[in-house]
């Protein structure tokens, strides 16, 4: 192993000599680079390899490249790049290749290599990376799309991009996203050729060997992709996605017409009458279809009236839709449209008021039909509170909890409304919520209750509530309540009381590390901070978390070293206990941090 490391370090010498000779690095910095490189090399030559060691080595080399780039810019030196940067780039690629060869399933590692190649313009290497990555991860359509996009946009090779898409479709013959991006690519290729031909004609140049097929210029390849896709992929969502892509190109009017007539809007009510997206698209089309051409003589009032009429036509379609397809998804589409229109800026108060009334009316109709999704109740309540309709907000919140009586989020929503409006029945509502919701998920309700109680009720009532919450919550959730109880006691009862509460809370597991750290911090804030008590708190914490937390051991050692009443002679036994108690790689982590502590670097 040592021989391999020495050989790799010797391979660095030419580039390091050049760095020193041209004045980019000093001799002292060169020695530091060699020391660091030696340490990193030894780590990646071990028998038991770790991914983190490769990542750290790669990151160090990238940082070195960035530093060289900044130094070059500062002194204005741009020569010897082949001898310096090329050597480092080659080494980084080798490290990435070793890492991805060892951990083939780590997609993030592959993507990091791709990003590095793009950043340093390593086109040839990136082509190899994509090829190897796709051979291993052929089951991920997103990677095929990324590779094809790079071929099309960076290498300007539509042929290579097309080849990648065709290979991808052999693995994923029914992937809508692949077909959409392939369709987009063919349209981009057609647009590119149209622009080229236009430039040639503008310059009155003889096209000669350049043969521009009219079919390709008109997007025939994209049409073939679309027709093939429609045989395999059904559903209005794909049709609408393809249509939206086609609309981005100004030469696709015939193609849009084909999509609309044969597969789209004019036959949507026949083919996809039960799909909410069909109705959503049909309704939103009314906005565009009815848009008049702007003229100089159009007054603001006339524009507002026209916009109001178009929105009314949209809503008429939506009203028909919720009658034909009475589902939560359909009402969600309708409400989303209304909210979008309401949130659009307008100088007309009349139009804004009309949009508000329409939105509130749609919310109410959906609620009365018992088809309003749970997530939309929150938006309805916000709208009611903004509009100062507090009584209606209370009524809606109560109705929501009747319908979703087991939902913690819905009860929280109702309680926040009551708290915001300072209603008298907040406590009663909390009791009702706790009664309905299962104890395992009640933590958000208890935290909200005690936070409200802290600012409203007496200290005695709040303390009783904290103690009740500890009994009522599940063990894993009671941990948070213990932390909150400890913090509240210290703020309101002082040091002596918080010590008593801490002792009583320690009688029942489980605990969190923050619970102990909070008590340690409280002790350290006292004028007469006693090491005896700190030791007790650290020992309690170590009994629970000593096998999984290195920083706890190190903080204990620091306390013994730095506290006026500390005993530095105890550090040896604490270190020995830590080595025995910590698990796995944590021992090595602890040793390295302890060494830094001894040398004054931590």
UniProtKB/TrEMBL annotation:
Q: Which GO terms describe its cellular component?
A: Pwp2p-containing subcomplex of 90S preribosome; small-subunit processome
Recorded protein name is UTP6 protein
* Keyword list, A-Z: Nucleus, Repeat, rRNA processing
Q: Which GO terms describe its biological process?
A: maturation of SSU-rRNA from tricistronic rRNA transcript (SSU-rRNA, 5.8S rRNA, LSU-rRNA)
Which SUPFAM superfamilies does the annotation name? Answer: TPR-like (SSF48452)
Describe the family membership recorded for this protein in Swiss-Prot or TrEMBL: Belongs to the UTP6 family.
Domain U3 small nucleolar RNA-associated protein 6 N-terminal spans what residues?
9-91
Check the record and name the SMART domains matching this protein. HAT
Question: InterPro entries annotated for this entry?
Answer: HAT, TPR-like_helical_dom_sf, Utp6, UTP6_C, UTP6_N
Look up and give the organism this protein is from: Grallaria varia (variegated antpitta)
């Amino acid at each position: 192993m040592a021989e391999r490391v020495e050989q790799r370090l010797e391979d660095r010498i030419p580039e390091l000599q050049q760095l020193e000779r041209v004045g980019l690095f000093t001799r002292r910095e060169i020695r530091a680079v060699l020391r660091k490189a030696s340490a990193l090399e030894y780590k990646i030559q071990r028998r038991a390899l770790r991914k983190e060691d490769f990542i750290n080595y790669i990151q160090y080399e990238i940082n070195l490249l960035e530093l060289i780039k900044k130094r070059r810019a500062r002194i204005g030196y741009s020569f010897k790049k082949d001898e310096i940067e090329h050597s480092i780039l080659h080494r980084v690629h080798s490290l990435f290749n070793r890492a991805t060869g060892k951990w083939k399933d780590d997609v993030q590692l592959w993507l990091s290599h791709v990003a590095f190649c793009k950043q340093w313009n390593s086109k040839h290497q990136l082509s190899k990376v994509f090829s190897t990555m796709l051979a291993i991860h052929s089951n991920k359509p997103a990677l095929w799309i990324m590779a094809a996009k790079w071929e099309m946009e960076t290498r300007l090779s539509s042929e290579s991009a097309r080849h990648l898409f065709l290979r991808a479709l052999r693995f994923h013959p029914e992937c809508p996203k692949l077909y959409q991006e392939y369709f987009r690519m063919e349209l981009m290729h057609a647009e590119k050729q149209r622009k080229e031909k236009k430039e040639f004609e503008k310059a009155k140049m003889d096209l000669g060997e350049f043969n521009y097929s009219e079919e390709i210029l008109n997007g025939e390849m994209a049409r073939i992709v679309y027709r093939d896709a429609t045989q395999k992929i059904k559903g209005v969502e794909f049709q609408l996605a393809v249509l939206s892509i086609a609309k981005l190109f100004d030469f696709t009017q015939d193609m849009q017409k084909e999509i609309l007539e044969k597969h789209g809007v004019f036959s949507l009510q026949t083919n996809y009458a039960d799909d909410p997206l069909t109705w959503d698209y049909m309704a939103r089309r009314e906005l565009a279809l009815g848009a008049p051409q702007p003229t100089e003589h159009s007054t603001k009032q006339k524009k507002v009236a026209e916009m109001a009429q178009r929105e009314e036509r949209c809503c008429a379609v939506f009203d028909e839709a919720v009658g034909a397809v009475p589902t939560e998804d359909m009402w969600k589409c309708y409400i989303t449209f209304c909210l979008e229109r309401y949130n659009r800026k307008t100088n007309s108060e009349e139009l804004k008021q009309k949009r508000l009334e329409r939105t509130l009316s749609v919310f109410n109709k959906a609620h009365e039909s018992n088809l309003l999704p749970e997530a939309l109740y929150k938006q309805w309540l916000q709208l009611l509170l903004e509009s100062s309709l507090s009584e209606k907000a209370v009524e809606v919140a109560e109705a929501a909890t009747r319908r979703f009586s087991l939902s913690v989020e819905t009860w929280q929503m109702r309680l926040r409304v009551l708290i915001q409006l300072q209603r008298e029945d907040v406590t009663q509502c909390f009791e009702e919520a706790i009664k309905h919701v299962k104890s395992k998920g009640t933590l958000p309700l208890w935290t909200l209750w005690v936070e409200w109680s802290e600012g409203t009720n007496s200290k005695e009532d709040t303390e009783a509530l904290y103690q009740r919450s500890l009994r009522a919550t599940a063990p894993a959730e009671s941990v948070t309540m213990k932390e909150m109880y400890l913090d509240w006691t210290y703020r309101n009862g002082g040091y002596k009381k918080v010590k008593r509460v801490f002792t009583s809370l320690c009688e029942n597991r489980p605990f969190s590390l923050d619970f102990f750290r909070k008590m340690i911090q409280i002790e350290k804030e006292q004028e007469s901070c006693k090491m005896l008590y700190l030791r007790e708190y650290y020992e309690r914490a170590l009994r629970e978390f000593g096998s999984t937390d290195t920083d706890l051991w190190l903080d204990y050692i620091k306390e013994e070293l730095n506290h006026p009443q500390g005993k530095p002679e105890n550090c040896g036994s604490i270190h020995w206990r830590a080595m025995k108690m910590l698990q796995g790689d944590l021992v090595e982590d602890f040793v390295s941090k302890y060494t830094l502590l001894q040398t004054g670097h931590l």
